[in-house]
Amino acid sequence: MSDAQRPIDDGVPSEQPSTGGAGGGDGDDDNDEFEPVQVFPEAEEMDLRPGADSCYKCSTCDTNCPVAEVDDEFPGPKFQGPEQWRLKRQDDHDIDESVMKCSNCMRCDSACPSSVPLSQMHNTARAEYVEENMSKLSREYLRNRMLANYRRLAPLASMFPRTANVVMGLSVTKWLGEKTLGITSEREFPEFATETFREWWTDRGGAKVENEDKRIAYFHGCYSNYNTPEVAKALVHVYEHFGYEVMVPEQSCSGTPMFANGMLEDARRAAETNVRELAAAIEDGADVIASCSSCSMSIRQEYPELFDFEDTETVAANTWDAVEYLRVHEDLTGALENTAVGDEFDDMAYHAPCHSRNQGLDGQTIEVMDAIDGIDAHDVGDSCSGISGTYGWKEENYETSMKIGEEMFEHMDEAEAETGLTECPTCSMQMEHGTGYEIKHTLEVLEAALGGDGAENGAGSGSDTDAGTTTATESI
Amino acid sequence: MAITDDVLVIGGGLAGVTAALAASDAAEDARIRLVTYRQSTLRHASGLIDVLGYAPGNTDDQQQPIADPFTALESLPESHPYQRVGVDAVREALAFFDEVAGDAYAGAHTDRNALVPTHGGTVKPTARYPVSTAEGVASDDRDTLLVGFETLPDFDAPLAAAHLEAAGAPFDARGVTLSFPGIGRDDAKVTRYAHLLDHDERVETLTGETGAREALAATVNPHLDGESRVGFPAILGDDHPAAVREALSDTLGADVFEVPMGPPSLPGLRLEELLYDALESAGVRVTSGVPVVDYETVAVDSMGANSTAGESETAAIDHVVVDRNGAQIPHEADQYVLATGGLVGKGIESNRKRVTEPLFDCYVPHATDRYDWFVDDVFGEQPYARFGVVPDEDLRPLNSDDDPEFSNLRAAGAVLGGYDYAAEKSGAGVSLATGYVAGTRAGEGCQ
């Protein structure tokens, strides 16, 4: 139990006596006729009235919206959430199509001084718009469905990664993509790895450390499985260094791109699988760890806001960002003291993804990097990178996306670093696209620091030869 | 493992940021962290830094603004936060602010209040003001053109001009309402106007495509009738406000100033950016978007043996708990500063039975009967406006027996009671003065 006496909720009468003022009888007895009554029936379906009522229209959310700042077509988060809800109370009002211009960066959530669940309202409104107002045969619907379900396509590409990479890189493919689907030809498609993380994990024979007391279930998400397995391997090496048993449960997409495209049913199916598998891992004594900031955001915040599977809340409450977990459960700073990394990581421009920011993690990476000798990591400011997952891939959003990103590109240019650092896969695409820098994940830096320079620890052993460094459990 | 620092400031508004900067200044080697939940209310505020505009307890609507706030501080009631920290501390805090703000703020040349025109056409007595408003001060007798825009109904320029003249401003004021070039929608955000001007985006005008700054000046120019200064609503840039003003001023051949607006306010936003940049330069670590929800005190073991009968030990906070979507993250520090705001910022809460400070449950004096919390005259002397924790001279919150609630907790800003910042126009000054004192003592306390 804590020492803090939790004060009672606003508006809920309690038995606690007043701590202030002169003593005496309960002055409220005379005023029973003013007790609040419930004027609206209990909601049976998703009802956004409580959120709409909490909004006092200060417009703080609007001033945080990166899209409204550059796009004259977008009326801002206050409209998309509370005002749209009120408008919908009138008959014959459909969800306004402008909701599709929201990039789902979720900055409005942490902006609101009144705890209005803005992104939840946007997700709900977007789903309703897609369901009721967007033709299922339209190019936009097909394109969005495809982008949202990237995970369904990725396995095909990764079966023939080299062919896929060549085909996707062809200008004719990109031209076709733009003309037929509305996917911008300005961007390079991310390359598929020749070996997925899960393939590597299986070849490796799974976990190298067994530990009943320290167990994590790794939610790698799609991108670090198909595109950047080096990030996922770094996580495994870092956690094994600290003596954790790593489990890699079955998993689907986190749902982030589906939320952003209003494909709520697709997201529900994916979430159901994830909640079931992750809950089973928690039952086995694991905490859930994600390396992608949008994956952790989705499981921690969007699942409980939008779904009510059994264990949704348990999974949300036991899911952590990979670095955050180590900071709280291990002496990470102590372990990093007197470590150093190679020239590859000496000078870095760090961008905090919006979805890290919303979890209160935007300052974390720089704090952790400070402990490592020889690293000079600069925060390139609090602007949004502008890509927001699938948003910046759409032909009609490309220009807005690059306008939003302009501030970050400028700050990256001003910083001395020539390497970028971030935890979000699509932010890293945008950083690379705007500056040409190579972009690393924080876990890759930790792996390099904790693994030493290789010479001291000897070469890696067993099947674990592809990592540039060895894990400490192997070298200890 | 708890995340460990030397000083932990809870709250990211003017008081919290000042406390963190002051702590870092007082203890150079100490590690300072600021935890803030929702975004600060700075962007709700005008960006003006007032100390004392009107004498408290005077609800006469004809009362004159205070000319010299520093002499007036001496006569405040003993319970006022300014009296708790003393006049010298108020001066030191302002000097500290001046150093942080650099040339972004004006007003340090005098003790006297400046009179800055507001978007309603009233004048506000204030000690410091954003440099963007400087050419507009009401003590300056140059004739003034105020420019409003159809799509920004919060600023009705002709009405504001008439109001200024009626209030006895020593100059002729005239207002015009124009259409803002490059803004299409009726509800464009203030950040959209600012971005357009910051980046000097290309906009369509009747005479072809030009930069947004030039287009705006060209829109205003025909309406200028010999006035040597022009006031705009405060939307003249976010990142490059000085360049925007200079470009407009050069083209118009008149000085350009901003009129502070209601929320969301760009001058407030710029102040917030300025302060957070200062935190970064000072090496203060900032954790934002997450609430502090709980705390634990240091276990009291056999220490009781030393205390004399009847004298209870003052508890010390061991750590606080930050909630991240259900995950409980302990944060440990040697000294803590509570700067969570007042009734608006939710550092003070009320329900139908009582008024509380929700985090540490510090004592907040108030009447038992809630019908005594307010008076019927809306602009009268409202008791609720003075609700807040009661500090000692070290700014430690006191319990109902006048003993400190905790040995290592200080409070700053609107969470303190005993003053009505809206009526007195003292909100920024109290936050600066108490933030400065609480932060300095916290910094000294951890050495």
Automatic annotation (TrEMBL), chain A:
Q: Which residues form the 4Fe-4S ferredoxin-type domain?
A: 91-124
Instruction: List, as start-end ranges, the regions of compositional bias called Low complexity.
Output: 462-476
Region described as Disordered: spans on this chain: 1-46, 452-476
Q: Which InterPro entries match?
A: 4Fe4S_Fe-S-bd, 4Fe4S_Fe_S_CS, Cys_rich_dom, G3P_DH_GlpC_su, Helical_ferredxn
Mind listing the GO molecular function terms for this protein? 4 iron, 4 sulfur cluster binding; metal ion binding; oxidoreductase activity
- Record has Repeat as a keyword: yes
One term under GO cellular component: membrane
User: Which GO annotations describe the biological process of this protein?
Assistant: anaerobic respiration
Q: Report biased composition (Gly residues) as residue ranges.
A: 452-461
Q: What is this protein called?
A: sn-glycerol-3-phosphate dehydrogenase subunit C
Which species does this protein come from?
Natrialba hulunbeirensis JCM 10989
TrEMBL record, chain B:
Highest taxon, organism lineage: Archaea
At the top of the EC hierarchy, this enzyme's class is oxidoreductase
Query: Which Pfam families has this protein been placed in?
Result: FAD_binding_2
User: What EC number(s) has UniProt assigned to this enzyme?
Assistant: 1.1.5.3
Is GTP-binding one of the keywords? no
GO molecular function annotations of the record: glycerol-3-phosphate dehydrogenase (quinone) activity
GO CC, sorted alphabetically, is: glycerol-3-phosphate dehydrogenase (FAD) complex
Q: Which residues form the FAD-dependent oxidoreductase 2 FAD-binding domain?
A: 6-430
Which keywords accompany this UniProt record?
A: Flavoprotein, FMN, Oxidoreductase
Mind telling me what this protein is named?
Answer: Anaerobic glycerol-3-phosphate dehydrogenase subunit B
Q: Which organism is it from?
A: Natrialba hulunbeirensis JCM 10989
